[in-house]
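Hi C.,

You asked whether I'd gotten around to modeling the 316-residue construct. I have! Everything is below, sequence then structure, no commentary in between.
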Amino acid sequence: MKICIAGAAGAFGMKHLDAVSKIDGIEVLSVVGRDADKNAEFAKKHNIPHAFTDLDEALAQPELDAVILATPTQVHASQAIACLKAGKHVMVEIPMADNIDDARELVKVQKETGLVAMAGHTRRFNPSHQWIHDKIQKGELKVQQMDVQTYFFRRSNKNALGQERSWTDHLLWHHACHTVDLFQYQVGERASKLQALQGPIHPTLGIAMDMSIGMKVPSGAICTLSLSFNNDGPFGTFFRYICDNGTYIARYDDLVDGNENPVDLSGVAVSNNGIELQDREFFAAIKEGREPNASVAQCLPAMESLNTLEQLLEAE
């Protein structure tokens, strides 16, 4: 299978490039990046045949099968739709859109084309969360509350590599999206009650730097989510699952119980890398002609909830 990675030289593009290198039968045919010289140099360094500055040029390659989009949030939906209309399967990094109308349009185009379109909701694939999900599906665990902290220190517009960004990240439409989707996925229900608060808007970035979100599903399970770009300390997202039969803390691909005793995740999946597992699901769905876990249609309820939360924040 021949693929293109758009945004390959960025922080998340590199994660996908590394993950793809561990999957048999996948060839990176081309990369897309804004800077022609840097993109060409990147392609040469990684033995990738073609480098483009225009996604449409990459999509014109007849031998291309699929695209991974690790590009700025604001172009996710339009680029994913372009891929589908060009006859290419697509995995678009989270979030698939930064507004509900674009998200709905992407789902509509996917249904029209019948191609695989998947959103990069990595938390569904991290072995830590997979272990919890399997226990829930078997009836061995029931979530009472998810308590989640998403903390970064981003008072300037830089990415995870410390490089200047050409776009602005967003606590609600990007970082909250991970938890909103994961909570609804784990409990198997859509949130029926939502609440949200945000702190002051940054004077130059134009975004809220602190946010608090609450959710409740009809069965009674709740989720409390705290997000900040002001946190000067350990970065990342930490999930505490308070269940009827134990408490567990997930830190990306690692899992411990409530007393910090490690949980054995061997045998949960073929890899301990959530990005690799996400990519494997994408390629497997294409080969098998099926809907992937985290298809854009499956992830639309999370976008609907984000839209409701945005309306609540605007009404503050």
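If it helps when you're writing up: The two ends are 49 Å apart (CA to CA).

Thanks,
B.
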